[in-house]
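Section 5: illustrative case.
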């Protein structure tokens, strides 16, 4: 190993990267679990026990019973309610909660002032206080909406509001918005109970409570006594137990991410195994004379086999330790950076080091290296003692046999046949059939694995022929011809090297194709689901200054106004419901909606959003009689046909002529706007929100508008796809790097193998530049062959997978990600070229006379 250290470096780097991937995956998972646990447990502050009622909730009387249990010092209900807080000029909808009765149960941190201790007091988070422009001692108004029974109302209920004056007595730290929405404002407990009773229209229910125990109280005794009050209806747990249960319930996402990371780590290790096996095969070939001489002086086959496996074990152990160190360093640096970014996530920069995190990558790296060395170790035992007398160079490896060709054909035919069957089943399946989808996914996954194995097994047939074919086009000079001959001299080794790159490129292309297809399919679906970028609405009417502010906003491309009114809709069966209807015209809609087909407005038709239709039981094609009032006060009605579409929102659309038949057309109270395609939707919605809020301060009598931005939601979905693609491509890039290390390794070993041959060519007149060019062409040909086969396979896999997964969403087009393909091909070819630099440098440094010398 000391004499072959340089040759083992590439294999060591490959296994180091693979084990680093495994270590980083496990460390990242442990960090996610701890982050989740910390976030969950922080909500309970210093509580001793947590009581959870998964059923109907506990009453105020139940809370009093719990507080009366011997050993219970305090009980804190974690119930919350919504309310509108604000001043005359600024208002905001927040979540209210109760201040804890004791400091140990309070999860909020005071930055200034005190906690509310009496009715009429409130503590706000600093962010809410800044937006409302209030501080300690200021008065704000709390407005709560609640419902009461009203026989005269269409739905039997009507809403009322109750306003209360509150004094700001404390400011709180902004809660970490990771898993739980904490209250943005805290009230005194009795006042919070009154508010809950109002919103619940009766006695409120409490579903989660934290308990503090008295000094000296036995936890298990108190737990048993509290459980005895309600039996199996409630769960009484310690904070640690509750945090673990909640973390386990949320662990689905973590497990998915863990499996995703470990899947890519497996790919990286599989590619590394190919590089390692290739390295040891060439090393064995180079040591033919040494091994034969050892056999001549009495070494047995078992001793030779053990020597090769021991060498692999030492290499695997050293490389795995280095990989663990590399992976730990990368995760540690990443956590340190994230911890300093002031994210809304309670990230601890410390690494979670466990025995499993250390042992799993170590054993995995060692096992993969040993398995990769099994075939070379077996080859070493086949070296006959008389081989020591044979020349080392000039022999070409034998070609693959007929049995391998038949096996390859079966694998490829069966694999791609299963893929095609999965696509057919997926496209023919009912969109609601989960079992059929799982069958199609299972067949597709099996077909993909089988066909990929077929490509790897059959690469020994395809890669040399592909190299010869490409070589005829680019290798017309003497160096090119020699490079082509050298590339295919050992088909199995060349195919093994190209296969490592084939896997990486196939997976990268598959994800790029799948992402491009998903992006296009989802874009069309999201345009239909969220066709309105921005909606601005007021209860009565929009003012001219509000309309102009939105229309003149940079980034707003088109806009239109809608007049709304409440109409009574009666179905053919006599069922009635109240709908909000708005008047629009086709021409305006075509300019504003992302997908005008979602709003087929026309005479005698009412366009009903799918959510509204589901809520009121309206189906496509139903006849509805809409009733309104004319200008004279007389009742008017019009019969229309319902067109249920994917349009979002709770506003039914009518054409202007139909709307006019219902009576007087009111002033426009809603505005729809479409953004330019190149703007940041989230920033533009925030700008509109701030601008309209500022207008309410400067212009008297303006109604604060309700602003919703479907563009933000649509952009969020698109961002998820792009982010996942970036992460996946980055992870798969590791396998490509390992594969390119294999290309450099193969070229380096080929230079050593052909040392005398290269010297002979130099003696016959081949220049140093021509020798470098010959090795560069070899590297490019091997990398190009693997990249080409991988790209074609990746396109097929990506489209087939997208067809199965996205068939329930819409039509799945076959898209070729030309930009990504060009990038992958460019990286592979440039890397193949760079991989030849060090081997070429070694080759030209050896003088022809020294290389032709006999050992």
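Designed sequence:
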């Amino acid at each position: 190993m000391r004499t072959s250290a340089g040759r083992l470096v590439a294999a060591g780097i490959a296994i180091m990267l693979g084990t680093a991937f495994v270590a980083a995956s496990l460390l990242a998972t442990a960090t996610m679990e701890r982050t989740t646990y910390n976030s969950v447990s922080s909500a309970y502050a210093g509580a001793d026990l947590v009581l959870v009622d998964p059923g109907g909730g506990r009453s105020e009387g139940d809370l009093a019973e719990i507080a009366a249990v011997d050993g219970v010092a305090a009980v804190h209900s974690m119930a919350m309610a919504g309310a509108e807080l604000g001043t005359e000029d600024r208002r905001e909808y927040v979540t209210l909660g109760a201040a804890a009765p004791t400091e140990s149960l309070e999860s909020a941190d005071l930055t200034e002032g005190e906690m509310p201790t009496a009715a009429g007091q409130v503590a706000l988070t600093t962010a809410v206080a800044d937006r409302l422009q209030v501080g300690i001692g200021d008065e704000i108004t709390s407005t709560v909406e609640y419902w009461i029974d009203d026989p005269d109302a269409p739905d039997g209920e009507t809403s009322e509001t109750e306003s209360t004056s509150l004094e700001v007595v404390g400011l709180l730290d902004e809660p970490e918005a990771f898993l739980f929405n904490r209250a943005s404002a805290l009230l005194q407990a009795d006042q919070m109970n009154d508010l809950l009773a109002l919103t619940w229209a009766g006695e409120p229910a409490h579903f989660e409570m934290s308990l503090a125990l008295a000094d000296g109280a036995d936890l298990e005794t108190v737990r048993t006594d509290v459980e005895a009050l309600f039996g199996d209806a409630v769960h009484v747990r310690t904070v640690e137990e509750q945090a673990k249960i909640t973390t386990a319930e949320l662990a689905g996402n973590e497990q998915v991410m863990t499996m995703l990371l470990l899947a890519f780590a497996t790919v990286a290790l599989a590619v590394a195994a190919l590089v390692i096996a290739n390295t040891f095969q060439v090393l064995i070939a180079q040591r033919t004379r040494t091994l034969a001489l050892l056999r001549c002086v009495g070494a047995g086959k078992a001793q030779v086999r053990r020597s090769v496996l021991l060498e692999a074990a030492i290499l695997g152990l050293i490389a795995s330790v280095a990989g663990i160190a590399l992976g730990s360093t990368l995760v540690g640096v990443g956590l340190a950076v994230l911890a300093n970014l002031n994210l809304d996530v309670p990230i601890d920069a410390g690494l979670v080091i466990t025995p499993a995190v250390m042992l799993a990558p170590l054993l995995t790296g060692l096992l993969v290296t040993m398995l990769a060395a099994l075939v070379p170790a077996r080859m070493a035992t086949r070296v006959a003692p008389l081989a020591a007398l044979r020349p080392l160079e000039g022999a070409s490896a034998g070609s693959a046999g007929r049995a391998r060709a038949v096996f390859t054909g079966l694998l490829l035919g069966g694999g791609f046949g299963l893929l095609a069957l999965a696509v057919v089943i997926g496209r023919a399946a009912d969109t609601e059939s989960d079992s059929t989808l799982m069958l199609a996914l299972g067949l597709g996954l099996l077909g993909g694995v089988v066909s990929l194995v077929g490509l790897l097994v059959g690469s020994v047939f395809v890669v040399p022929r592909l190299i010869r074919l490409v070589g005829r086009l680019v290798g017309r000079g003497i160096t090119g011809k020699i490079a082509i001959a050298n590339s295919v001299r050992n088909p199995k080794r060349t195919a093994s090297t190209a296969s490592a790159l084939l896997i990486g490129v196939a997976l990268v292309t598959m994800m790029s194709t799948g992402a491009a297809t998903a992006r296009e399919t989802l874009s069309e679906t999201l345009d239909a689901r969220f066709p309105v970028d921005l909606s601005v609405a007021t209860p009565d009417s929009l003012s001219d200054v509000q309309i102009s502010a939105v229309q003149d906003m940079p980034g707003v491309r088109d806009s239109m106004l809608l007049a709304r009114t409440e109409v009574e809709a009666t179905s053919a069966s006599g069922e009635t419901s109240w709908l909000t209807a708005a008047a629009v015209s086709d021409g305006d809609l075509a300019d504003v909606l992302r997908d005008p087909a979602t709003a087929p407005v026309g005479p005698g038709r009412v366009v009903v959003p799918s959510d509204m239709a589901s809520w009121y039981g309206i189906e496509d094609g139903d006849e509805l009689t809409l009733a309104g009032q004319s200008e004279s006060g007389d009742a008017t009605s019009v019969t229309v046909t319902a067109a249920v579409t994917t349009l979002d929102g709770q506003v039914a659309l009518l054409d202007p002529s139909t709307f006019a038949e219902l009576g007087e057309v009111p002033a426009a109270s809603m505005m729809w706007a479409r953004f330019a395609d190149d703007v940041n939707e989230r920033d533009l919605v925030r700008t509109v929100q701030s601008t309209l809020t500022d207008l309410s301060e400067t212009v008297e009598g303006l109604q604060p508008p309700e602003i919703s931005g479907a563009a933000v939601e649509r952009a969020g979905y698109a961002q998820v796809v792009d982010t996942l693609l970036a992460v996946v491509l980055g992870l798969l890039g590791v396998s490509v790097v390992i594969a390119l290390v294999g290309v450099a390794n193969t070229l380096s070993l080929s230079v050593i193998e052909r040392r005398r041959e290269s010297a002979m060519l130099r003696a016959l007149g081949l220049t140093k530049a021509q020798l470098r060019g010959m090795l560069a062409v070899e590297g490019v040909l091997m990398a190009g062959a693997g990249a080409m086969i991988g790209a074609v396979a990746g396109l097929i896999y990506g489209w087939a997978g997208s067809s199965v997964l996205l068939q329930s969403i819409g039509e799945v087009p076959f898209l070729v990600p030309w930009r990504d393909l060009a990038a992958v091909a460019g990286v592979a070819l440039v890397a193949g070229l760079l991989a030849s630099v060090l081997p070429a440098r070694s080759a030209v440094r050896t003088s022809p006379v020294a290389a032709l010398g006999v050992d």
